[in-house]
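Sorry, explain these tokens?

___
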Amino acid sequence: MNVSHTIKAVFFDIDGTLVSFKTNAVAESTKLAIQNLRNKGIKVIISTGRSINSLDHVKEIEFDGYICFNGGYCATREGTVLHRQAIDSADIKRLLDYSLSDPISFALMYEDSVKVNDTTAEVAGMYAHLNLPVPPMLDRSTAKINNVLQANIFLRPDDEPQFMREVMPNSVATRWTPLFADVNANGLSKAIGIETFCNFFGIAITETMAFGDGGNDIEMLKRTGIGVAMGNANQNVKEVADYITDDTDNDGIWKALLHYQII
């Protein structure tokens, strides 16, 4: 199965895909795989729910572009912003009002900063899991409701549908953990980022490949020519993938690229 001549861009999720939750590092085989892709002229692009300012874990790797905030922000390696889409300000206003009477933890993610409304053990644990410092506290008196590119809402999956209908009806929620939901502008997903970069580089969707492990990767894996789920991926991610590779910690990216004879 030689599809190497048809693949011109590969998109990578970070947490649980490029970066191991066990080691908080990128496997040496993955670094080599990405270098081999770039040596062949294949574009390599980050596709993450992280902020553009929270990519230190992969800074030693050279990428051709960045999809951040689950498609809410797309920028080239040189820093040219190709796409930016914020959450409806009315939804952020309702979230702030809701949290005054109903205890709920959340983070608001802007292009240049992230703020949290509290620092519970749950919130601190999530940022520790991502090997990131807990962001500064949100000052309600000066909180900006415009230009929020993503919100992380700490609520149980069972409570999510009603919350989204009543509090953030103009937004969409995706998950890679039961602890919280990534919330973005309605209609937004990593697939928007895929399309943005395909248009920018002049690449057909059929000439793309993507790797992911969480619920926020589903639309990306469905949209690209070849969608690869990591062995450690959630079951709903594996169900939409074209191929299931090994775990992140067991050279999963390298093995999948070998399987498709791309490296």
